[in-house]
Write a structure and sequence with these properties.
The protein is an alpha+beta fold and 249 residues long. Helix content is 33%, strand content 27%. It has one domain: Aminohydrolase, N-terminal nucleophile (Ntn) domain (Glutamine Phosphoribosylpyrophosphate, subunit 1, domain 1, 4-Layer Sandwich), CATH 3.60.20.
């Protein structure tokens, strides 16, 4: 299982993903699920992946190989003129990989499914964020849907819905995301640290600032413990339930 989030802010884009993959409780590994391509001064593109590991790795490898192909072929993600066209290329590649795997392997298409979050900026346009489905279609983040989650989404979503603000600083956003990931990790053992983070400043057109939180990271532990204590304190401050009360009391 995976948990990953891509988020739009007024300041730019924020990406976070876990690194745990498992095929049973006795077969747990760590794999990178965050990928970035940068042409300084021209574009920055980031992809988060969730789903079948072979599918996501094949998709990323194909996208990478096509950046090195002769220029007379179809444009790669490093040549497409807009982020919308990058989304079209990534979606088509994902769909092609899933179809190829389903023809050559098992017949259960769902076994090869993967979902991607794509975000970035190309010179001359704003930063954009997309959610790409296994079928090859996609949607774009906007004012009503400013962030996307993939993988094990339900445990970490409530805090994002309640606390997200487009005016948030990167520091505040990282704190919010760590709470979201901590809630998910505590509820589902198939999601786990290390957690990868990438912060992209609007119009910087660089690779952004990337870092990793290990399971024993001091700041991560402070946030986790502090959030737990804050919840207990908030619960204690709520009005006491009175036994025997009527439903409309």
């Amino acid at each position: 299982m995976t948990y990953a989030v891509g988020m739009r802010l007024n300041r730019g884009l924020v990406f976070m993903s876990d690194t745990r993959t498992n095929a049973g409780v006795d077969n747990i590994s760590t794999f990178n699920k965050m990928f970035n391509w940068t042409v300084e001064g021209d574009r920055s593109i980031t992809i988060l992946a969730a789903g079948n590991l072979a599918t996501t790795q094949a998709t990323i490898s194909l996208l990478e190989e096509r950046t090195k192909a002769p220029k007379d072929r179809s444009p790669s993600i490093l040549e497409a003129p807009t982020m919308f066209q990058v989304a079209q290329l990534v979606a088509a590649t994902l769909n092609d990989v899933i179809e190829e795997h389903s023809r050559s392997g098992q017949q259960a298409d769902s076994a090869f499914h993967a979902t991607l979050i794509l975000g970035g900026q190309i010179k001359g346009g704003p930063s954009r964020l997309f959610l790409i489905y296994p079928e090859g279609n996609f949607i774009e983040a906007g004012a009503d849907t400013p962030f996307f989650q993939i993988g094990e989404t339900k445990y970490g979503r409530p805090i994002l819905v309640r606390a997200y603000d487009p005016e948030m600083s990167f520091s505040e956003t990282v704190k919010l995301l760590l709470v979201s990931f901590d809630s998910t990790i505590k509820a589902n053992l198939s999601v786990g640290a290390p957690l990868d983070l990438l912060l992209y400043d609007e119009d910087s057109l660089d690779g952004g600032t990337r870092s990793r939180f290990e399971a024993d990271d001091q700041y991560f532990r402070i946030v986790s413990d502090g959030w737990g204590d804050a919840l207990k304190s908030a619960l204690a401050k709520l009005p006491e339930y009175k036994t025997g009360r009527k439903s409309n009391d």
